[in-house]
Design a protein that fits this description.
With 377 residues, the protein is of the alpha+beta class. The protein is built from ten helices and 18 strands. The strands form four sheets. Strands 11, 12, 13, 14, 15 and 16 form a six-stranded mixed β-sheet that branches. β13 (274-285) and β14 form a beta hairpin. α5 crosses α6.
Length: 377
């Protein structure tokens, strides 16, 4: 939740005694500084946003929901009676005392204060982080016309020294389980749809058909989505970007993997000898353009020998992977994905990374691997 609402990537020492400032949306009313406003396309996206930041699965049409953070507080989703406001999220969160409500509104309610700026990045753009040698894919560009001022970036490069728990014990061997993947399911689902569309290559007609059929997916992010995704799909296939950015175990026959795969997202819980992660279970029908997705929880038994999630990601072998009863039909193939906003990925330039500036605290820069258009001056 702190990652989604305050862009806190990793909890610092003594995190429970600290407070954090919200970065979600905009503060529009100086008289009500604890209220922030976020643009969404419709009521369905409002519900999806609440589900994403709380790690829940909500049925289609849900307008009222609640989530408890134990002793730290609660978040409540409810309909709004204000014209153009699709929903409200009431926040009582001890770690964020300066955030009491999030208004989820139509972009038309936001002031035009971007001076006609255009997004710096497009769907499918790729940057290389020279600091930890990881590739980052733009899974959702900024779109000021729709009130989307942040870019969201995804990486399949999971670095052991930072993103794994090492579990040692005399009764069983050292094992690795992923931590701090830093994602929310609503953004990850959009990225999954992008991967599927990139696999179409030069078939721009199929991309347009998909977006026309599923307007609630990428189309929500603006009229440029079709053109940007079509360009990226052509260029990705022509230059074999799949082989460059996907994990080793998925560089061959990537179209088969995109037909049926899982994205592993946020850390969910870790206690005793088990580790549980929420996932997006994505099933794409290549011929019929049918997108079916659901959320579930996967649980790893860390006491089992060779319980190594990194091996699962690399090979697609199930190993000691256990699916709980919330969803017993899960694919054997899986992709672990990290997510960062542009601000988290690099210096803050209108909430997008600037690869001409050094990464904060590293003395190294981002390198453009694939960019549809150059940065504006």
């Amino acid at each position: 939740m702190l990652n989604a609402l305050a862009e806190v990537e990793e909890l610092p020492t003594g995190w429970a005694s600290k407070t954090y400032d919200a970065t979600v949306g905009e503060q529009l009313d100086a008289a009500n500084p604890t209220v922030r406003t976020l643009a969404v396309a419709n009521a369905a996206e409002a519900s999806s946003y609440f589900a994403g930041i709380t790690g829940q699965t909500l049925a289609d049409g849900t307008t009222t929901a609640s989530y408890s953070v134990g002793k730290l507080g609660t978040l409540n989703l409810r309909p709004s009676t204000e014209a153009g406001c699709y929903a409200l999220i009431d926040v009582e969160f001890t770690l964020m005392p300066n955030l009491k409500q999030i208004r989820l509104v139509d972009p038309s309610l936001l002031p035009d204060n971007d001076g006609g700026k255009e997004p710096y990045y497009s769907w499918g753009d790729v940057l290389y982080d020279e600091n930890d040698k990881s590739f980052w894919i733009c899974g959702r560009p900024a779109n000021p016309n729709l009130g989307k001022k942040k870019t969201y970036w995804f990486s399949f490069d999971i670095k052991e020294n930072k993103n794994y728990y090492k579990v040692d014990g005399s009764k069983y061997k050292t094992q690795l389980v992923v931590k701090n993947l830093n994602s929310t399911s609503d953004k990850t689902l959009v990225f999954a749809e992008l991967l599927h569309l990139l696999s179409y290559g030069d078939n721009s007609a199929a991309i347009e058909k998909y977006l026309d059929t599923y307007r609630s997916s990428l189309e929500n992010w603006g009229p440029a989505a079709t053109q940007q995704v079509t360009t990226a799909a052509r260029d990705w296939n022509a230059s074999n970007k799949f082989a460059q950015v996907l994990p080793d175990g998925f560089k061959q026959d990537y179209l088969d993997y995109f037909a049926n795969y899982t994205l592993f997202i946020d850390e969910y819980s870790k206690s005793g000898s088990t580790m549980s992660l929420p996932v997006l279970n994505i099933l794409f029908g290549q011929e019929s353009d049918i997108n079916q997705s659901s959320t579930a929880t996967l649980t790893w038994d860390m006491k089992k020998s060779y319980c190594d999630m990194s091996g699962y990601f690399a090979s697609g072998e199930e190993g000691n992977l256990l699916a709980n009863t919330s969803n017993l039909i899960l694919p054997r193939r899986g992709l672990a994905v990290r997510m960062r906003t542009g601000k988290q990925l690099s210096t803050n330039l209108w909430e997008t990374p600037d690869y001409d500036k050094e990464l904060p605290g590293t003395g190294k820069k981002l390198t453009p691997i694939y960019i549809q258009k150059p940065l504006l001056p």
